[in-house]
Every structure is written in C-alpha cells, then in structure tokens.
Amino acid sequence: MTTTTMELSTSAEKRKRISYGMTLLVAGLLIYLLFGLTTQAGVSTTFGLNLAGSQAIEVSDLVVPAQLTVNLMAAIAAFAGAYQLAKGIRSTGWLIGILAVTFVIAFLTWAAQDKSFNLTGMLGSSLVRATPIALAALCGVISERSAVINIGIEGIMLMSAQTAVVTATVSGNLYVGLIAAILVGALVAAFHAYLVIRFKVDQVVSGVAINIFGTGFTSFISSRFLQKATDALNNSGTFPIISIPGLSKIPILGPVLFENNIVIYLMILLVVVMHIMLFYTPWGLRTRAVGEHPKAADTLGINVYLVRYVNVILGGMIAGLGGAYFTIGSVGRFDEIMTAGKGFIGLAAMIFGKWNPIGAFTSSLIFGFADSLQVKLQILRVPIPSEFLLMAPYIVTMIILTGVVGRAIPPAADGQPYEK
Length: 420
Fold this sequence. Notes:
Blueprint: H1 2-36, E1 44-48, E2 62-65, H2 66-86, H3 92-111, E3 116-118, H4 119-144, H5 153-171, H6 174-198, H7 203-226, H8 230-233, E4 242-243, H9 253-257, E5 259-260, H10 262-280, H11 282-292, H12 294-299, H13 304-331, H14 342-352, H15 357-380, H16 386-390, H17 392-404
Parallel strand pairs: 1-3
Antiparallel strand pairs: 1-2, 4-5
Helix pairs in contact: 1-2, 1-3, 2-3, 4-10, 4-13, 4-14, 4-15, 5-6, 5-7, 5-13, 6-7, 6-13, 10-11, 14-15, 14-17, 15-17
C-alpha cells in the first residue's frame, strides 16, 4: 500500500513538473511571437516613476530598449520552462510568479513602445481598484474560517454603498455614512447567519437570495428616488486624500501606499489585524477549530454557534466598508449595480489566497492590476478591442479559478450546518 502511494505521488509530481515546464516554454514562445516580432527595433519604452501632484521625492524615469526587453522576458520564461522540465522547481509560487512577471513586463513594454507609461500611477491605481475586492475577500475569509459560506457579499456591498451615500448626503457627514454602511452590512450578515445557523438554510441559496434582493432593492430605490433628487439624496462627495507625513515622500512607494483616503488605509489595517487575530490569538484558534472540526471544538467548551454568528457579522461589517468605498470612498454617488461583480471576484481572491488574509490581499492586487491595466491600455490606444480590455479582470478570475480550485483546500467543515 505504501509503495503504491509513493508511486502515485511520484507520478503526480512528474506530471506537475512537465505541465508547468511546458506552460513556461509555451509562454516564452508566445511572448516572442506576439510581442517580440511586433516590437520595433531601436525603440525605447519609458516607465514613469513620478506622479504629478505627489509629495514624493522625484527620481529619474526608467527607460528600457523595447525589443531587447521583450526578447529577454521570452528567454527568461523559456529558460525557466526548460529548467523545470530538467530539474524541477518545487515552489509553485515561483513558477507562477515567473510566468506572470515575464508576461506582464513584456506586454507593458510592447504596449507602451515609443511612449511613456506611468508605472507609479499604475501601481497606485491597482491598489485603489483592489480595495473593494480585498474587503470582499476578507469578508469571505473571516466567514468561511468559521465554516459559513457567504455568497451574498455582492448584495451586502450594494446595499451598504447606497446606504452610505444617502446617509452621508442627508447628514452632510461622510463618517456618518461610513458608519451606516458598516451597520447595514452587519444587519444583512446577521440575517444570513440567523437563516443558516438557526434554521440550517442552504448557505449558498441564502447568499444568492441576498444578492438578488440587494440588486433589485437598490435598483428600485435608485430609479424611484435617487435619480429624481440627486442633490438631496445622491451627492455626498468623497473622503479626502490623506498624506502620511514623511512616508508619503518615499519615491514610488510614497504615492502608492501613503497618499490615499481613509477607506484604503482601513483596508490595509484590516489585513494586518485579521492575520494577527486569526493566527496568533485564542479567538483565532477557536475560529479555525470551529471551521475545521466543530464537534471537537464543542467538546472543548467552545460555543460553535456564537463563534459563527460573530464571524459572519464581522464579515458583514467588512463588506459594508467595501460597499462604502464605491460611493463615499470613490465617486460620491450611487449608480445601479455599481459593484460590477467585485464581491464575486473577492471570493475568487479568497480562494486564490487560500483563506489567508495576506494571501487574499495579495490576490486582490492581481485583480486590481488587471482592472487598472484595461483602463491604462485604452489610454495608450493599443490595437486590442476595448471590449476585450473590459473583460480583463473577469478573464483573470476565470484563469485563476481554473488553475487553483481543486488545489486550494477550504476549511474542512466549510458550508456544513452544525447539529449537536
């Protein structure tokens, strides 16, 4: 039995080595064919490292030879593929990183050849666009770590976004709107928790119902009231940019990390705090125990129902903060279905991040980068139809889910109702 298991493991590792190696080789070939052959010789690409209006110390822009850079990326991907076939690289993260970095650098160099591409602005925009995705992912992490699936994040964010802008407009205070959005998120999540914990309603069905209700309710309120009284109900303004003294002057990183509004700062703080709470505190240990083996946790005196209620409600509050970003943290008004699937993308980021707050945040940055990239490429007028550019974040979602689902292992009791 042991010999058979070892043979199966060796066979699986061999298949994995060959598949990743061939993928990198094909990527290197595609980089050369798609970008290398169509990049003009003697042309350079300028990557801007300064942001207009920023307090950061200015540095020289990065100027690279376009064709040489693209061909170098193709060679690196091909070499990594050949090395993987011959020797094998144990770290899957390194392989995915090499694939992503070489392809992205080659693509940006090709797209901006003979032009200037503001790299710092791109990074800052990626963080901004990743914010609601990261908050949705964190909501999913804290809920599913206690074994409760919350598919209704999209609906929660929509209702919170509308509540935030209406409350802030009527009260004239953005912080009142922020608090109202968080409270609405908590209330909707509490309702979801009550259905799935008390009455053992199917968790996916309950989440889908919240999404349908949230979409219909906010669309009705928007068309019936907000569009007719925009100044009175739907014109809140947005949180101002807050520059952190000293840190905002750091080249490149200063404008990206330390010149943002309060919602983005809260998101970054939540990532750090949630990681510490989940993995370094008794509360986190109880939460993970409930998610992995609720019967054993109950035997040790942990109130499984209470832990699940608390986690789902906290997740709803985080999703409410994500909803507030769309209105008072971004554009200052509410538009129908303005979340545009960010709640679902957040769930994909949660899975790709393996139910870890830092992993979920890092994954969200990938989706934020894809979302920001399609905007930048339209400005550069690359010869790619705008419809395909708009599909970029959703294509990335499908690619990641196709490659990761089945490998990422959720909490053992995820989605299962608990009965004493």
